[in-house]
Amino acid sequence: MLIPTQAMIYRPEKGAMWDPSVIWHGGKYYAFMMYNKGGREGLKAKHCLLASSTDGVHWKDEGIINEERESARECRFFKCFVGRCGDKFIMDHGVARPEGQDTLRFYESRDLKHWNYLFSSHPDPQWYGRRGRWDHMYIIPKEQGTPDAGYWGYAVATPKPGLSRAPGMMQSPNGTDWEILPPAEMKWGDTPEKDLEYGGCERIGGKYYLIGGAGDYVSKGYSMYTMVSDGPCGPFSPDAEAYRLCGTTSKNVTWLAAWARAKEELLISNYASLSSDIGRPWMLPLRRPVVDKDGHLRLGWWKGNETLKGKPLTLEKNTAELSTRGKNGPYQIVYLSEAFDSHKGVVLEGRIKAGPAAPQWDSNDTASQAKPAAGFVFEKGPGQSVAIQLGIGQPEGRETHIGRLQTTAQGNMQFQSEDVTGKRCATVTGIENGKEHRFRLLVRRGMFELYIDDMLMQTYVYEPGSGKVGFLAHNTNVIFRDVRAWKMSL
Questions:
Q1: How far is CA 84 from CA 25, 87, 144, 208, in A?
Q2: Which among 36, 322, 393, 415 could bridge 473 via Cys, Cβ 3.0 to 4.6 Å?
Q3: Closest by CA position to 262, among listed 435, 450, 28
Q4: Is 60 exceeded by the pLDDT of residue 363?
Q5: Integer Cα distance of 70 and 98 in angstroms
Q6: 449 neighbors 365 (Cβ within 8 angstroms)
Q7: What is the sign, positive or negative, of the torsion defined by CA atoms of 258, 262, 266, 271?
Q8: pTM higher than 0.70, yes or no?
């Protein structure tokens, strides 16, 4: 029996999932994920759960389709990838064994629901540590549209000392017989080397884009990073100017993103945890990969997510003009009159134009250094909110901060930054002075996701309070107009 679940964001009705992978086939999107059917920690999964969607937004649990073969001795089912190889599908998944995370299991299917076990693979000691990591592997055709050309596989691996930290490589003529190869070649340059876990590699415009994630690396929070190569086996190099594809700087919110093969297009999937329930994450809306004119991979709004918009909501006003000039402090905040149902969620869209800068106040606002900013606030309680402060200026020099904004006993508004998006980030760092931008803001269950001009700015979490959302000016003038709102469709 199919159990309907909630849209943006999805997680199973019962138990806990981790690391979903998405593929499209036969008119539906399918998501395969690690699954702990009786607990609240997705990383303790022993099964694989399947969910399906006709639009890539509204998901239904299909049920358990696989169980780790040695679950009785506490082996766990880790992340899987599913790739189309000719007229069949191949699933591979990692296994966390008592001996180590050193096993890949392979299965095949014709319908994505019934899977036949093929074999298990272990790292080749010529190039990889015998008890090192040998985990989920992303599969791509060597030549798109030509199955007979064979397939590349990119596995999470631990190369032997002396070899560069890089994904493990495999190749196959048919998707069922795999040959282990040396690690991909990497040239780290001035970027610190790191053992990443990988969300796959895809070919766009003649270049290969490898995405990988880690925590406590460039930033404290878990983030995704982008490496680029002219060839399938490297050399890959960090995209230094736009290295951090998505993620946070002070705490774990979003986790491993992965390439997703949809109908006639590539997408990127990701998932995130609420601070209060970190072991039971939710799938996020699918993103559209965008390669800009300089070859940098970025994340954009996917047109399929328009179905997140349910019933239109009537707003008392759809324009707000804010200015801190002549005020007794650096902030002005205007809340929408309506309080939204945070459980059901809301989609807000509109336009924002900021500038010029107003006089800077000495407000002890050291986190954002009193620089002009404009953005959004989520009311937590009297005198307390969470704010998105979009930096104003040229992309190369601005930063966007997210953090707590509260009114002190003296009546001053004080901001404490928790997260910063700026240099070396592929996501939006702010807005330009005097230019009008479009925004999309998704808010639900203590989680929000902001897009500027259809490009991802950030996904973040907060403690929901009154349900009120507002607009913010910090040392600047700003106009919000054409604001519209919809209930999220369930």
A1: 9, 7, 11, 19
A2: 322
A3: 28
A4: no
A5: 11
A6: no
A7: negative
A8: yes
DSSP state, residue 111: S
Q: Which of 204, 210, 201 is nearest to 228 (CA)?
A: 210
378: nearest Cα among 461, 451, 468, 474: 468
Please answer whether residues 261 and 84 qualify as being in contact, where contact means their C-beta atoms are separated by less than 8 angstroms. yes
Q: Which amino acid type is present at position 14?
A: K
Residue 426 CB coordination number (10 Å)? 25
Q: Closest by alpha carbon to 201, among 157, 259, 161?
A: 259
Rounded CA-CA distance 438/433 in Å is: 14
3-state secondary structure (DSSP) of residue 481: strand
Report whether pLDDT(7) > 60.
no
Instruction: Give me the residue label for tokens 């089912």.
Output: 77
Say if residue 35 is exposed, middle or buried (CB neighbours under 10 Å; 0-12, 13-18, 19+).
Answer: buried
- Give, for 389, the enclosing helix (H) or strand (E): strand 384-392
With a cut of 50, say whether residue 345 has pLDDT above it: yes
Q: Judge whether 249 and 419 are in contact, CB under 8 Å.
A: yes
Quote the CA–CA distance of 331 and 375 in Å, as a whole number: 11
433-446 CB burial, b ≥16 within 10 A, e <16: beeebebbbbbbbb
* 203 closest CA partner among 242, 232, 246: 232
pLDDT at residue 23, as a whole number:
98
For residue 164, the tally of other CB atoms under 10 A from its CB is 15
Domain architecture of the chain: domains with CATH: 3-301 (2.115.10.20), 308-488 (2.60.120.560)
What distance in Å separates the CA atoms of residue 452 and residue 350, rounded to the nearest whole number? 10
